[in-house]
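Table S5 (text form). Sequence records supplied for joint modeling of the two-component complex.
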Amino acid sequence: MEVEPRGAVLRAQGLRKHYGDLEVVAGVSFAIAPGECFGLLGPNGAGKTTTLRLCLGLIAPDAGEIALMGEPVPPRARRARRAVGVVPQMDNLDPDFTVEENLLVYGRYFGIADDVIRGRIPELLEFAGLAGRRSSRIQTLSGGMRRRLTLARALVNDPELVFMDEPTTGLDPQARHVIWDRLRQLLVRGKTILLTTHFMEEAERLCSRIAIMDHGRFIAEGTPRELIGRHIEPQVVEVHGDGLDDWSEAEGARLASRLERSGDTAFAYAADAAPLLASLERRSGLRYLHRPANLEDVFLKLTGRELRD
Amino acid sequence: MNAYALPRLSMRFFPVWRRNYLVWTKLAVPSVLFNLADPTIYMLGLGFGLGAMLPEVGGVSYIAFLAAGIICFSTMNTATFEALYSAFSRMHVQRTWDAITNAPLALDDVVLAELVWAATKSCLSGLAILVVVYALGVITSPLALLTLAVVPLAGLCFGALGLLITAVSPSYDFFSYYFTLIITPMAMLSGVFFPLEQLPTPLRIAAEVLPLAHAVELVRPLTFGAFPDNILLHVAVLLAYAVAGFYAATVLFRRRLAS
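The corresponding structure-token record, covering 568 residues in total, follows.
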């Protein structure tokens, strides 16, 4: 798990950042090795985006040290960002430009010569599945196409490390799967990815290592499998319907190793689900779903079920 | 990252300036027409309409008097609009600045690019009016071409002040305060439409403190074919507003976006 510091593309030590009385990032340390996909998971307001902005040198930490691509940040953040690509949470493509112009203009911000950028554009558009949309205006693109173009834009400088802040939020399942596929391709090519998300499925599929963040702190860290194995019982039965209270009291609480209630649904966690399922079979009013535990269960256990907004 | 550090000037601003220029080229035809139409209407309406009722002003026809005022007035308006509405759109609505600062550029580079771009647009506008007044035969002296040296300075000055307002603005609505409280009174007091001497002393002093009067006092003699008096003073005032406005704007943008 420990990453050899010298090889890390990003290393953060004891990061802190407060706004007013609120400590948004409250002592965060991590290191990302080349070729990793590191996932930062957390509910809204957990401090994920602030952590990314700190690591990019866009804001200064109150305390802590950051090295991005071996450069101290913020002092040499601009230099470090030459080898970094960023896919922001909110689309900020240039609405006045075509697809191609967006890539060209963005490449110029890196000081790359026009002919070099133009040479890269066909490959970038191919990668983004936008080969036929070279001259399209941004307004005519779907949400998924815009995200893919934003991803292509983040690759215009051929970065070693790509920051992605909730890359698939707001996309439909088809568009999301295309993005996932592209991110895997990047990993195959040896790129490093730092990803924030609140889609557990996304983290489970893509990330080699995950940190769950809440209230500005890392509350768990490991591979998806490790986190599930360490924090949660392997089987889950979700129960709802008439007579839930009665069943929970009479049998559920006894048969499950942990029984959680959220609204009208009970989540029964157990190493062996067979006794739970047998008891539910005898209750005709109850409906249930049996499934293996996943990262979302870990996430909800660690960060709670209350709404965060 | 000290928010109060002096702005770091670097040629890195250029790709950002170029981005704005590329957007402008897409809208160049309507933009130039607007640059031409607006001052032409002022010149014709006030110059010929009001001018017909007036005797000579300061020894010249009213329309010849007005030409310098309109050049400065348009320069101010163009730089101000660009630094307020357009810059605010790029910063706040389109989040273009965020995209740029994710690349190896700093916020300082973006603010400098916006300033230079606002000045560039005011030059386009100043040039357009100069063409109009030459075409109308209002101005004949070749010395009037020297106004093209004053216009960029005025553009930097009003661009910087506009950026300062944008840096503290929560929304587009806020800009109407700036127009109502600063820009419009300044336009009325600064010798654009009538000679400063017409004003009572306190208002005249107020006008002398604001930058527009100094731009007018540089441009007007040039349009008559004479060199202005007190060139250094007028240039120094415009430059002081530009430098102080740019520094304050940079600090406020840093506090707004990078804290």
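Note: DSSP finds ten helices and no strands in chain B.
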